[in-house]
Amino acid sequence: AAGKAELAARIARLDALAAAFTHPFLSLEQAVENEIVGLAIQLTRHLVRREVEHDPAVLHAAVADCLAVLAATVRDVTMYFHPEDAALVRSQWPAGTEQRFKIAADPELGRGDLKLVSGSSLVDGTIAARCAEILAAARSGAA
User: What tens digit of pLDDT does each residue of 97-120 get?
Assistant: First the structure.
């Protein structure tokens, strides 16, 4: 009985070693993937920040994408932007837009980030969230 127990323990250790040899770099691959994703998000933030300064239409496209997520019946929407972006949007949007959507500044948001909030909905339009959505679609094969 003792020999069988020792044999079972050794077989379990050998199985664990075999599994470790089968996937030796799995955790390393995940860490590298996470670093690459983080780098891509930082690069995207930098590029969007520069693009917003040169072409505010980038913000308008992001707003349109986020509004498309909301149901048509949603009312009283507040759009939160980085303070500089909020001023830019206010200066370029047609008169009457603020009656339908409130534009507010949120210093916690970075340039190019936005959030849409209503009584029943929240749309996270931050660059990180948009990148995560693109990555999720790419991983699922939808992109």
Answer: 656 788 899 999 988 899 999 888
Residue 74 identity = V
Q: What is the spatial order of strands in the sheet that 114-117 belongs to?
A: 101-105, 77-81, 114-117, 122-124
Query: Would you mind telling me the total number of residues written for the chain in this entry?
Result: 143
Residues with Cβ within 8 Å of 1's Cβ and at least 6 positions away in sequence, in order, are none
Residue 86 has pLDDT above 60, yes or no: yes
Please give the C-alpha separations between residue 22 and each of 8, 30, 119, in angstroms, as whole numbers. 21, 16, 51
Positive or negative: CA dihedral 94, 98, 103, 104: positive
| pTM, two decimal places | 0.67
Q: Which amino acid is at 34?
A: N
Q: Which helix (H) or strand (E) holds 101?
A: strand 101-105
How far is the C-alpha of 126 from the C-alpha of 109, rounded, in Å?
8
Contact (CB, 8 A) for 112 and 58 = yes
CA distances from 129 to 9, 13, 37 (A): 47, 42, 12
